[in-house]
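User: Sequence in, structure out. Go.
Assistant: Echoing your sequence, followed by the structure tokens.
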Amino acid sequence: MSSSPNIGLETLKSYLFTHVRTKHIEFQIIDYGSTPRCRVVPLARALQIAETGKTDGVSTTSPILYAGAPFEIATYGANPGEDHWVADWTTLKPVAGKPRHAWVACSVKECVEGSESYLTDPRTILRRVEESSQKAGIEFQIGYEVEYILSTTGSANPLDIPPTWLCSAALRHPSFSIVEESVDHLEEEADIPIWQFHQEGPSMFEIPLSPSTPLLAVDNLAFTHETIKTIASKHEMHASFHPNAFESGPPVGQHIHLSLSRPEEGDHFLAGLLEHLPALTAFTNGGYDSGGRQNQYGSGNVVWGTTKLLPVRRIGEAHYELRFPDTLTNPYLQLAAVLIAGMDGVNKQMELTITPSDWIDVVSFKPMPQEKREELGVTKSLPENLEESLKALKEDSEVFRKGLGEKSFDTYVEYREREFKGAQMTTIAQRRKIMITNI
């Protein structure tokens, strides 16, 4: 009887056949606060890990995913066990500017007190949510708009780039060649299609990624972030995806495009999104310094329409864009929460009771008049900060607790509460110094 093939080892060897200079593998995870964490494994050891199929080849003290919330003063207690970093060899990609390095996305298996589980692992949770949607007959395509600001390494200010939107003069700025280098690597070496790239605003660039299935989309997003940062660093620049990286810079977002394979379910999905939108901000804008980005659209109301000045924009029959998310939450958890909210509308066949909005006053940020809210059927407002988002999430916890899993849900809420407590003991300057380095 022949033994079953070792898919992981075969996948790794296939990659090495076309990337013969590879000597080291960068194992990467992303914690609950969206900080990428990495361990570099020599190739010989990586081959051993793939060959045995065991998960303990790379391990750390548990819990690596949520041990230290941003700005937390006290150290979070360690579990009596360890976390295993389990490589998904199908995600292997060459690292920009380092031909001897490859990157691989990992899931985290918690091994604590004799039990082993992936209950708090963001990649596993997103995969499960995606599979659940498929069982309901719905496939998703997800596209990200990657916005970022460039600055000289060590500078407290972004680059001085022409301060207008989509300005041709920005293409002649020396920094644009750094953007092009990132795009070239993503397309030619990493097989990540790019739809376009441009200057998005003062000191800011944008690279929209081609849509793909949910887990692949976030894996590609994570690698894109690493590529942009690595290439910028090579040129003594720093790239930041933080929503409020600089006092003088523009706010940075992470727009999410989402389309359903069954257009007839589009209204139900949208209804679910809108129903849970206040609670969802705990994931889409989950950082203490998310800065109320969700309130920059639709004057902070739970509304939708066809313009880019609303929190949820309908582009096609079953194609939506979430305009307000940022990068301060683990992207796998963030997208999982978005799909959970929308699919609740599909599963319950929710009716869309809010009519499309034409409210576009985002310059003065004047509140929407009550008569306008009544005309549109608007009954909810969006939270203005992390504390309010967590309150909304606790009040609307059932669907997210079920979709994410009880342990992951409770862990995430506790993590954000620790972040909120720690952040109140710091200044914005201190927080920027900590977060800009990582995000």
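User: And one key feature?
Assistant: The chain has a mean pLDDT of 90.
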